[in-house]
Specification:
Blueprint (H helix, E strand, L loop, with lengths): L24 E6 L10 E3 L2 H8 L10 H10 L3 E6 L10 E3 L5 E5 L10 E5 L8 E7 L6 E8 L4 H10 L3 E3 L9 E4 L11 H5 L19 E3 L6 H14 L3 E5 L6 H9 L14 E4 L1 E5 L7 E5 L1 H14 L9 H4 E2 L4 E2 L9 H10 L2 E5 L5 E3 L15 H20 L7 H20 L3 E7 L15 H5 L6 E6 L7 E7 L2 E7 L1
Parallel strand pairs: 1-3, 1-11, 11-12, 12-13, 13-18
Antiparallel strand pairs: 2-3, 4-5, 5-9, 6-7, 6-10, 7-8, 14-15, 14-17, 16-19, 18-19, 20-21, 22-23
């Protein structure tokens, strides 16, 4: 534009668009009080959770909402997928006295009995219309329809239902009459089964509800511990290739029982997990959410969920969840079985060597995630969780780069440009103490395509190109030997790692 020099800043509304960098988001699936089924929603606070999914369920029904809120209170960011056992539970409903049905709750559950539908005179004072309010006693559930016609047809009711968050109006409603209509007769559904978790790929239910979601590195079914669900989740993560499962053992298992669950032998028959995912064992004693003065025993899976979310939010995904800044927790009264006690050292060693992470109470009274292992059964560098996470990070970061070069000319300038971008990723990892060094072999320095050594010229002619990156990661410190030599009344301390 001619004239005086200027700069323009445009504000673009991206509030409804998906995020591209959700490394701190953990996907979790389970039973909620309400919310759209099999629809992933990112939540960052307990208040946001309550608005979208309702309150905690009775402990006897499901601990999933409790686990979600506990994780959110401790700084986690969750992508929540509500599930329900189809055909069980009753939706609350309301009707005119002696008349026909007006509406039902969108979801089964007792929560619906707290819904009230209010049809009142319109604030606009317009004739032949009403204002319609849907709310509950503490206003965590609220929706308003203004200037709704008192005369309704099937098509206008369908339009209302398309915008309804909490209730569904009956298709037979022909008019709205001023009044207050409480909902009744709702009952809770049972907790999801392994079939509900596994879901259906065509229908995008269960784990498959996450098919269109990107950016998270872990998925967990926090309120569940059975071999069938574990394998379904592990197989789903293997199919995606961009995330790992976070699993847990049942509550209260001793050392031998933990290994029986891990190996899927009696009484836990099934298929053993071989994965770069994680499994935590150990339970926590916490204050009961429903009964004042009472305690409740819950799984320690929340500690893994919170730890990995914190790491992702801070951006250093190759650090260990066992670090004190990620793996130390408060708000816990005790642990059920303390694998950090000297008496259980052999059990603890066997558990950790198998690839299971224990949650413990240390000698100094700290409650800690105390491990850094994957469920991979072959011993290698990828047996260390932080290195497995580094490998996934490198894969995802380099994948974004190489995707840009598809359909570019398959020649030296393209290879050099690709190397320049990828090397920035590795140099950044060196700076942030994730790797010692790296080597890149991709014919990026040859003068012409005919001089390739890593590739073959015939493959290049066919549009094929390959490069190899060799990475030397920094492993987590797992053994420290402290030698104390007392001589002539002076203690000399030497530290060997």
């Amino acid at each position: 534009m001619a004239g005086l020099a200027s700069a323009t800043v445009n504000i673009i509304d991206s509030s409804a668009s998906s995020q591209n960098n959700n490394a701190g988001v953990i996907a979790v699936v389970g039973m909620t009080e309400r919310g759209d089924l099999n629809k992933p929603i990112i939540v960052g606070s307990t208040l946001e959770y309550i608005r979208k999914f309702g309150k905690e369920l009775p402990v006897a029904v499901s601990l999933f909402p409790y686990y979600c809120m506990r994780a959110l209170e401790r700084g986690a960011k969750l992508m929540i997928v509500p599930l329900v056992h189809a055909g069980v539970g009753v939706k609350a409903s309301t009707s005119l006295g002696g008349g026909g049905l007006i509406a039902t709750a969108k979801r089964e559950g007792l929560y619906g009995n707290d819904i009230t539908l209010k049809i009142i005179a319109p604030a606009s004072r317009t004739a032949s219309v009403v204002d319609v309010y849907v709310s509950n006693s503490d206003s965590t559930l609220f929706q308003k329809y203004s200037d709704v016609s008192t005369t309704q047809t099937a098509s206008t009711i369908a339009i209302l239902n398309a915008t309804s968050n909490f209730i569904v109006f009956d298709a037979g409603v022909t008019s709205f009459t001023i009044g207050v209509y409480p909902f009744i007769s709702g009952t809770n559904a049972t907790a999801p089964t392994s079939v509900d978790y596994a879901g259906n790929q065509a229908q995008k239910t269960g784990f498959y509800a996450l098919d269109s979601s990107l950016g998270f590195r872990f998925i967990s079914a926090m309120d569940n511990a059975d071999n069938t669900t574990d394998n379904a989740l592990n197989n789903y993560c293997l199919m995606r290739g961009d995330c790992y499962p976070l699993l847990r053992t049942p509550l209260g298992l001793s050392g031998d029982a933990v290994l029986q669950y891990f190996n899927a032998v009696s009484p836990y028959a099934g298929t053993p997990i071989d994965s770069l995912g994680r499994m935590i064992t150990g339970g926590q004693v916490v204050n009961h959410p429903e009964i004042t003065g009472a305690t409740l025993t819950v799984s320690s899976i929340v500690a893994l969920v919170v730890g990995y979310s914190r790491i992702g939010i801070n951006g250093r995904v190759w650090e260990s969840v066992g670090l004190p800044k990620y793996g130390t927790y408060t708000g816990i009264n005790d642990v059920i079985i303390n694998f950090a006690s000297p008496a259980l050292k052999s059990d603890a060693d066997a558990i950790v060597n198998a690839g299971i992470i224990p949650f413990v109470k240390t000698a100094t009274g700290e409650f800690r995630v105390f491990g850094n292992t994957t469920l991979q059964r072959k011993t290698s560098l990828l047996s260390s969780a932080n290195i497995a996470d580094l490998a996934l990070y490198i894969k995802l970061e380099t994948q974004k780069i190489v995707n840009k070069y598809l359909f570019e000319p398959n020649d030296v300038p393209t290879w050099r440009a690709m190397y320049s971008e990828i090397s920035k990723v590795f140099n950044d990892l060196k700076t942030n103490r994730a790797i010692y060094s790296y080597q890149y072999f991709g014919d990026q320095d040859v003068a012409k395509a005919e001089d390739v050594s890593v590739n073959t010229f015939s493959d290049v002619q066919l549009g094929k190109y390959k490069a190899i990156a060799r990475v030397y990661p920094i492993n987590a410190l797992t053994q420290i030997e402290l030698g104390i030599n007392i001589a002539s009344g002076v203690a000399i301390v030497t530290l060997n790692a």
